[in-house]
Amino acid sequence: MKQSKMLIPTLRDVPADADIKSHQLLLRAGFMRQTASGVYSYLPLAKKVLQKVEQIVREEMDAINGSELLMPTLQPAELWQETGRWYNYGAELMRIKDRHARDFALGPTHEEVITSLVRDEISSYKKLPLVLYQIQTKFRDEARPRFGLLRGREFIMKDAYSFHSSKESLDEAYNDMVKAYSNIFRRCGLNFRAVIADSGAIGGKNSQEFMVLTDVGEDTIAFSNESDFAANVEMAPVHVQYEKSNEELATLEKIETKNQKTIEEISRFLNVAKEKCLKSLLFKVDEKYVLVVVRGDHEVNDIKVKNLLDAKSVELASSEETLNILKAEVGSVGPIGLTEEVDIIADYAVQSVVNGVCGANETDYHYTGVNIGRDFQPSQIADLRFIQEGDPSPDGKGTIQFAEGIEVGHVFKLGTVYSESMKATYLDENGKSQPMIMGCYGIGVSRTVAAIVEQHHDENGIIWPVSVTPFEVHLIPINMKTEAQKELADQIYNKLNRESVSVLYDDRNERPGVKFADSDLFGFPIRITVGKKAEEGIVELKLRKSGETLEVAIDNIVDVIK
Ligand code: ATP
Ligand code: MG
Ligand code: MG
Ligand code: MG
Question: Which residues, by Cβ under 5 Å, contact ligand 4, an ion?
């Protein structure tokens, strides 16, 4: 492509409202422009990067037997009403009306559409499993769109959905997906880490996020310095799951914990009634971890407690003050702040969970003097939000460290949540109707582009990994008006095109300083400068990443590049 024919509006100055490097550089290098808050036009260079990333995604999805389809952005409210998400998705769901005043949503995700599609088309176990994916524009009316492509209100996502007749089949597809995601992000040149994510009410190791490690990430990852344990700290705390039999548990001291009334009693135990608890929150008070278990699907209470903890006031408060705050914030029942919503507040254990108190396998009973690791193996982790650097890792190996991350991908075992509410069933081998078991898997394609820039730049501009670069070569004659230079540049341009090396030819009559500054901003891997030695058929080749230069004769140029 000839640069004079393309729209690449570069900027010399850092745009005022762009706080992070990827946002600044993508604007400065002329890759994109904002159209509205959180809404961007991808200019020609960005479009090329998107296509490369999408191609990598397609190859890896196809390799695990995913088939691509394209579903509508415009989604009728009725589908969202079936799952109830029309009512509880909140303000992030972009809602519009058609001319007949019928409600629609602009899809933020496609579980409803795909479940309705598959329910209508698949009726037998013989057609399962099925993995479908699309690459498409999504809409989310984010409360705080920011950081350019990292958090847009309109953005590009690859979303995949899988349908199964058994848990084993779902596990298989999920594991394939995890591998495919690793391949994708590796091929995009990213330094990333798969971390355990909050899987909400489903619990367990049923959800992982792919985090790109940078210092601008909106997520915080806690990881062990000695094992592959890594989790998003926003992860809901999960109660300890017991791997001891009831007989073994009988050797521990058991106490009844029903209707606890005093702070002393409360602070002696922890109730982890697992069937009922939606979320619990662990925080530190006076060197002790205090666990709040919020029961039932009280989303509202959960948010209240969260806000409370985010305010940090609780962290500094004594146990009693904490109770008072909770009492004031969440409700007021009973003398010690116990409410129906905040069911139990307990002193979890001093520091690293030694001689702590654990919820029982039996409702309303707890064990005291419990040592995690000795008496129970925690198969899931506690709330990490209040764990500090250097604390023991929940898997017992090493200590906790922190890193910032950008969530570029998310894989999730859904189970039958959607198939049950939307009645997506199939007939099994025995002719019996069963809800389909589902998984969903997302990649932020446009966010990935920004994440790549976050990890690949220097003070002069972007440094694209070869796999996703808009062009492999930037060809720059220093002076287009010097006949020898123009001629040699033309010759190289044609040659590279013939060899299918993608090249951007800076055929503008600009000063060399301007051309080089632009070139560094764009960040293609190789720059070929045609200058004084043009008459001898010699050009300078410079690697963007290392700054290494070498002189190459025109006849060798293709070999050197390839
Ligand atoms: P976040 O926690 O950052 O809000 P999410 O968990 O809401 O993301 P998912 O529903 O898991 O996002 O969507 C799948 C992927 O889509 C995410 O992993 C992320 O890469 C991307 N994504 C989500 N929201 C945005 C956004 N506002 N802008 C760009 N990409 C996004
Ligand atoms: Mg979100
Ligand atoms: Mg998230
Ligand atoms: Mg997510």
Answer: 410
